[in-house]
Amino acid sequence: MLLETERLYLRKYTLDDVEKNYLYSQEESRKKGIPNEVYADIQASRKNVEFILSTYDKSDFPYVYAVVLKNTGEYIGHVSLSEIPGGIEIGYAICEKHQGKGYATEIVKAYVAWGKKELALEKIYGEIYPDNSASKKVLENAGFTFIKNDIKNNFSIYVV
After folding, report:
1. DSSP string, the chain
2. Which of 35, 48, 101, 104 could crosslink 138 through cysteines, CB 3.0-4.6 Å?
3. d(CA 22, CA 17)
4. One digit per residue, pLDDT tens: the chain, 160 residues?
């Protein structure tokens, strides 16, 4: 286990996660908030999970882990640190059934602290759609500060 919070822990993905990864990608909140993580079919989800598995043998970005409930062991989402032009970005998603319970904020706070300590990251960015009020709340509750909207006003950019 990589990281543990009061209610959650992170673990590496396994091929057993392919089906839930696909099902979660079909949820409306994912389609709206992270459309590049919506998979056309189970094979596309498998390809994504296989890519994530291939990254665990490297000590470089991206760092993508499954978010799991401590009390049940249920996989409920993911969190990642990935390279973007000019820095490192945090990504996260919690399945709809478990949204609104503070899980995203809990894991984002912990993963940011881990990234700063273990990877010596000075800054971590969060990029969200400007109308994504739930993600805005997660970032703000996790200590991120709004910087600006990008030049095309496609994304609101935050930093911690």
Report:
1. --EE-SSEEEE---GGGHHHHHHHHTSHHHHHH-GGG--SSHHHHHHHHHHHHHHTTSSSS-EEEEEEETTT--EEEEEEEEEETTEEEEEEEE-GGGTTSSHHHHHHHHHHHHHHHHS--S--EEEE-TT-HHHHHHHHHTT-EEEEE-TTSS-EEEE-
2. 104
3. 9
4. 579 999 999 999 999 999 999 999 999 999 988 888 999 999 999 999 999 999 998 988 999 999 999 999 999 999 999 999 989 999 999 999 999 999 999 999 999 999 999 999 999 999 998 888 899 999 999 999 999 887 676 788 899 8
Q: How many residues does the chain have?
A: 160
How many Å apart are CA 8 and CA 107, to the nearest integer? 7
